[in-house]
Fold this protein.
Amino acid sequence: MRFTPSLLLLLGTAYVNGLPSGTSLVQRQNSDSEVIASYATQGLCFSYIKGDNSQKALSPCYTWCKKTAPGVQGVTCAGSASAPGEPTFTDSDGNKWQPGKCQCGGAVAELAEDIFSIVAQGLHQLDHIFCAVMLQAFTDIVKVGVNFIPGAGEVDAVKAAVQGAKSMLENTLGSTGFDSWISNACGVQQTQTNQAAYGTLTKMPDSLGKSIGCKQKDTSKCQKVPPVSGKPKRV
């Protein structure tokens, strides 16, 4: 039997990524925007398992965290990729997702601060020129996705960003760690754009950058970063 968001609504309850039974999902899915609006009142989000749209994935969390955790910076969408038994949906762009749970403040607050510092120190050092180019590129990356091809003046900055994103992913510091690294180094707060770019950067080809490796003392806490072959291609 194939579940749809509308059918789940009729059932009225669900168990999603550790959420208690009885948590309402969506009142009716006629569009992604309606799901986002409903999820924003429940602390749920889009956990992508095929394809990616970081901006859409985190959109409900920005509203939820602003209301439930005012002043806390950064959000993440926690969900088990392709969790057995969980319903799977397809967004309007054809990307597959499962319901995830919003986390306000993200992973940095939950991990030892020295882990973040060790990772950040191992990354490319960002100066004001790198920052300016990188922050502008993030806007284009959010729009274009993994097929973004950096221009001649952007290559080094984008490579540094890809390295940073994949390193944060491997060390389970996530989009919040990535945003903290950028914000601290560049002195510019654009959390939503940084976090929206993060998911795409982690999926860019290894020719543009790789993780610096696991820096956790307990290596079991690290997450494997899948290799991405090839080079960006225009579509």
Remarks:
- Residues 5-105 form one domain.
- The beta strands are 44-50, 75-78, 89-90, 96-104.
- Residues 128-144 form the longest helix (17 residues).
- Residues 1-29, 107-112 have pLDDT under 50 and may be disordered.
